[in-house]
Amino acid sequence: MIAPSPSPVDPRLERIRTVLRCLLAVIYAFVGYVHLHSPGGFLAIMPAWVPYPDRVILITGLCEILGAIALMTKRLRYLAGIMLAAYAVCVFPANIKHALEGIAIGHTKLGWWYHGPRLLFQPVIIWWALFAGGITDWPLRTRKALNR
């Protein structure tokens, strides 16, 4: 999938987008690595209705790494933004289960000091992927760009 025709570029907006895209790619690549290297913690928070949870964790780890790589390419950036946003929606049930059931990961039980902000931040992660992929400029679009 190739991005739609670009609108006039605001250099400030593109600098912000580039920094956020690089940061998001690093985060997704790291979390993907953790999925592959230490899947046990993810198995613990996987909802029971997910079939083949061990394979799902492997696949999601690979998807995170590939999504991070694609986000850094011009050709695949747009698609990567959409797919990483969709991915963030799909993993939300695991985050909810983790919070509601207070599941300990590696002998550490995280409280609501962690889960509350984590759950509230999920929509930001979805927006972040869409912004990094060039799907949206909201809310950083300048007044000048809006008038074009």
Task: Give a description of the structure.
It is a multi-pass membrane protein. It is found in: Membrane. This is DoxX family protein. The chain crosses the membrane at residues 18-36, 56-72, 79-100, 120-140. With 148 residues, the chain is mainly alpha-helical. The protein has one domain (12-146). Helices cover 68% and strands 0% of the residues. It has seven helices and no strands. 21% of the residues are buried. The mean pLDDT is 88.
Tell me the layout of helices and strands.
Elements: H1 11-37, H2 40-45, H3 53-71, H4 77-90, H5 92-101, H6 112-132, H7 143-146
In a nutshell, what does this entry contain?
The chain has 148 residues and is mainly α.
Number of DSSP strands? 0
Gap between N and C termini: 26 Å
Number of helices: 7
| Order of H and E elements | HHHHHHH
Mean pLDDT: 88
Shape: globular
- What's the structural domain tally? 1
Task: Report the helical percentage.
Answer: 55-70%
SSE class: mainly alpha
* Gyration radius, rounded: 17 Å
> Which percent band covers the strand fraction?
under 5%
Low-confidence stretches: none
How would a textbook summarize the main sheet? Answer: none
Protein name: DoxX family protein
Keywords: Membrane, Transmembrane, Transmembrane helix
Subcellular location: Membrane
Membrane topology: Multi-pass membrane protein
Keywords:
7 helices, 148 residues, mainly alpha, globular
